[in-house]
Structures are given as C-alpha cells and as structure tokens.
Amino acid sequence: MAKATSSLDVLIDLAEERLDIASRTLGHCRAEQQRCETQLQQIERYLTQYRQGLNQLGMAGAPAKRFAQQQAFIESLDATRKQQLIQLDAACQRVERALTHWQEVKRETNAYDVLRKRREQAALAREKRLDQRMMDEYASRARSVMSGT
Q1: How far apart are CA 70 and CA 40, in angstroms?
Q2: pLDDT given at position 145
Q3: Is the CB of residue 19 less than 8 Å from the CB of residue 106?
Q4: What angle do CA 117, 119, 124 make, to 5 degrees?
Q5: DSSP state, 61?
Q6: Are 32 and 91 spatial neighbours (Cβ–Cβ below 8 Å)?
Q7: For position 4, what pLDDT does the model report?
C-alpha cells in the first residue's frame, strides 16, 4: 500500500533540500577561504624571498637603481598581500554566514525529524492498541463460544 504524503512529509523534504543547498554553499565558501589562505601564504613566501634578496643586494653593494627597483617590487607585492588579506577576511565572513545559515536549517530539519518520529511512534501505539483490542475481542468471543453463551 502506498504511503500517503502528509504536509509534514512535504515540509521535511523541503527542509532536507534546503539543508543540502546550505551544505553545498558552506562547502564552496570553505573552499574559497582555503584558496585565499593558500594564495596569501604564497604571496608571503615571495615577500620573504624578495626581502632576503633585497638584503643581499644591499650587502653586495648593488647599484642604487637596482636596489630601488627591488624595493618598489616588494612594495607592490606587499600591496598585493594587503589586498589578499581583505579577500581572505571577506571569505571568512562568507564562511561564518554560511555556517550560521547551515546551523539554522539543520535545527529546522532536526525539529521536523523529531515530529516525524513522534508521528511514527503515535501510529505504532495506535496500531498496538488496535491489535490489542482485536485480540481482546477474539478472546472474548472464544470465551463466549466455550461457555456456550
């Protein structure tokens, strides 16, 4: 026999769909945050390398023009690092918003699941009572037949 779809079943299905979407969104946001962190680390490694190179140029007595070019490049790279920090901060904020949204949808889904379980338990209790009533009626009829009533 096909199970009738109740409004609770529809709400549960919709909540689960929203949870799937929220989970995917959170995953995308976390991946973007990881990409931003990786890019920042790479920029910081470049900065370290070029600053070491600048120090070596200074110690080696490199021409002032070469030293100034290296310094300008490092400043440009530092500006890129600052921009990457802004992007990372924005990505972290998106993760926080996505996580909060996911948690809200998860709580809603859990609440519907509790209602579904209660409904199933109530149906089982009704079925058990009906079975008991039928058994009691059967036993009563059997006693009536045996006692000749």
Answers
A1: 20
A2: 81
A3: yes
A4: 95
A5: T
A6: yes
A7: 55
Residue recorded with tokens 């409004």:
7
Supply the DSSP symbol for 148.
T
Is the CB of residue 104 less than 8 Å from the CB of residue 25? no
What is the Cα–Cα distance from 5 to 9, expressed in whole angstroms?
6
Burial class (CB in 10 A: 0-12, 13-18, 19+), 109: buried
Residue pLDDT, tens place only, 44-82? 999 999 999 888 877 778 788 888 888 999 999 999 999
Q: 57, 66 in Cβ contact below 8 A?
A: yes
In contact, 75 and 54? CB cutoff 8 Å: no
- Residue with the two structure tokens 């519907």: 112
pLDDT in tens, 90-133: 999 999 999 999 999 999 999 999 999 999 999 999 999 999 99
Question: What domains sit in the chain, N to C, each tagged with a CATH number?
Answer: 9-115 (1.10.287.1700)
